[in-house]
Recover the amino acids of this structure.
């Protein structure tokens, strides 16, 4: 990777300083002085020749941009650390309000994340280490002398722990072109006293946005080859694979695998999926998957997109998704009923899942929990089946993974499995109540305080809003008199602000009674939903990066009405359903 890809060069990083002919240690007064002097020299109005005016305009705009960045202490700090790339990031008011040291730490973290992402996109290194541990001595009957003390029994039980098998995998990927990638993967495993090594290469080519094919070849003995393709449509995904292995005695029978998933309804997310495997261990699976969301209230952004932005909730449990899966599985022609339920709490980045399977061998289940962040995830899962009880731990950091399956019992022991789920869950619940929940409340308060501080500091915007409101007062007063005389639409009170009401967020509101009354025409008021309400004359955004609501109390035909309109809902007045009984 070249230096220009991972980090701005000195020339690019100091471009704005060069425009003003300053060094990086320049003071604010020096920046102001140079900006004033250069603006007078290159101002387009001072040029007589048209060609000179074009060049002067270009230089004048460069000077203005350089001054905009270097005169703002926060943007200057961002530019000094990240270069011009950092100026394209949308920095929240909360970050701007932090101390210099905190801002420097946050910017440094963003810089590290950016470098990591660029390196990861270039070769995509992936590593996995697996250690399977036999821990039956910890929960099974003690096999040592009966007269051993408790401490000796514990030491002996831990001493009997052993690694049953282990495995190390590592892979890298290189882009040969925009459509073609080459992956190399090595795997070294140890099991039952035998060491096995496998090295494979995978060539993947994307023929079109919908169709991708790949070929996977095992380069060490026993050689193997796998050919597959994936088709992705608007509502359908099909994956087909065929593989075979070259043994010493010849080519072993090939294995064919086909899977397909399809969205069942245009306006609903239910999906049906099936998988068919024809080989030494044939199986057939058909599933019905039904995902859903809860707590989300889309709000239209200024670009027309819908996104949810609000202060973090105290509980962290208000927004998320759930999914349910039911199906039938045939393994070696013996049927099994399968089901799965899961919930993901978006704010906590926490996913909980419970999977059930019932067949001729009885009931088996797996209960798992996963916490994730942009760079790290941790998963704990308890498995119960006829083979025993297994606690599986997985840690992933920067795409490097370690897996530790811990065998607790080789017998079917539901009670042990339940205790394996109950104890960590209790610890998690206590940590949530006494540690995480208070921390989230502090985060929420900081967020709201930053929004209030930003509202108080926007003096120019507030003066402009007050001036516009003053200009609209005569129009609003005239319309109020006309509407009152005929029993029409009269806005008695209107506020616009944060939908949140707790922890001081209720203060993030502005009075918009006059601007709304000025919009009334013929006893009607209509405001479209395709633009944010903060763009209405006399409105401003009182709570950036939060969901907002317009609350209106009005009179129509002498009766009091009340209504609330989120940003994504059009305002239509009057309506009979708004009447206050």
């Amino acid at each position: 990777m070249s230096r220009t890809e991972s980090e701005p060069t000195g020339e690019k990083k100091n471009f704005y300083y060069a425009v003003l002919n300053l060094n990086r240690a320049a003071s604010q007064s020096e920046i102001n002085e140079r900006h004033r002097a250069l603006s007078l020299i290159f101002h387009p109005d001072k040029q007589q020749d048209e060609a000179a005016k074009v060049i002067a305009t270009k230089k004048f705009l460069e000077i203005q941009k350089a001054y905009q960045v270097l005169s703002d202490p926060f943007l200057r700090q961002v530019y000094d650390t990240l270069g011009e790339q950092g100026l394209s990031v949308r920095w929240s008011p909360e970050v701007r309000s932090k101390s210099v040291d905190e801002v420097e730490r946050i910017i440094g973290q963003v810089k590290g994340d950016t470098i990591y992402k660029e390196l990861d996109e270039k070769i995509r290194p992936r590593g996995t280490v697996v250690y399977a541990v036999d821990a039956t001595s910890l929960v099974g009957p003690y096999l040592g002398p009966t007269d051993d003390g408790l401490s000796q029994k514990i030491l002996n039980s831990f001493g009997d722990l052993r690694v049953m098998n282990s495995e190390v995998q590592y892979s890298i990927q290189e882009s040969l072109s925009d459509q073609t990638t080459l992956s190399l993967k090595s795997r070294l495993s140890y099991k039952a006293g035998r060491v096995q090594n496998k090295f494979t290469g995978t060539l993947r080519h994307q023929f079109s946005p919908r169709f991708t094919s790949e070929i996977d070849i095992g380069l060490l003995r026993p050689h193997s080859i796998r050919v597959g393709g994936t088709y992705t449509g608007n509502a359908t995904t099909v994956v087909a694979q065929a593989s075979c292995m070259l043994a010493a005695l010849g080519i072993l029978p090939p294995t064919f695998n086909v899977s397909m998933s399809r969205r069942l309804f245009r306006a609903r997310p239910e999906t049906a999926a099936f998988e068919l495997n024809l080989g030494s261990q044939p199986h057939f699976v058909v599933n019905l998957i039904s995902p859903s969301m809860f707590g989300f209230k889309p709000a239209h952004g200024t670009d027309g997109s819908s996104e949810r932005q609000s202060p973090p909730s105290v509980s962290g449990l208000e927004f998320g998704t759930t999914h349910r899966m039911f199906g039938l599985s045939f393994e070696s022609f013996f049927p099994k009923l399968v089901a799965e339920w899961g919930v993901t709490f978006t704010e906590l980045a926490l996913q909980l899942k419970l999977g059930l399977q019932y067949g001729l061998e009885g009931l088996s289940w797996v209960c798992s929990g996963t916490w994730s962040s942009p760079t790290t995830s941790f998963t704990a899962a308890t498995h119960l089946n006829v083979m025993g009880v297994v606690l599986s731990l997985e840690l992933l950091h920067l795409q490097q993974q370690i897996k530790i399956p811990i065998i607790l019992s080789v017998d079917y022991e539901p009670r042990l499995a339940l205790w394996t789920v109950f104890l960590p869950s209790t610890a998690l619940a206590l940590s949530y109540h006494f540690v995480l929940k208070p921390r989230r409340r502090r985060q929420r308060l900081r967020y709201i305080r930053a929004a209030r501080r930003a509202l108080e500091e926007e003096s120019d915007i507030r003066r402009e809003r007050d001036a516009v409101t003053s200009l609209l007062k005569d129009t609003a007063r005239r319309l109020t008199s006309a509407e009152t005389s005929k029993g029409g639409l009269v806005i008695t009170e209107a506020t616009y602000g944060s939908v949140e009401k707790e922890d001081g967020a209720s203060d993030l509101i502005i009075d918009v009674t006059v601007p709304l009354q000025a919009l009334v025409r013929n006893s009607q008021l209509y405001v479209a939903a395709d633009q944010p309400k903060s763009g209405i004359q006399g409105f401003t955004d009182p709570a950036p990066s939060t969901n907002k609501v317009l609350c209106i109390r009005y009179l129509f035909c002498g009766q009091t009405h009340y209504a609330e309109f989120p940003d994504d809902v059009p305002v239509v007045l009057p309506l009979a359903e708004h009447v206050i009984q």
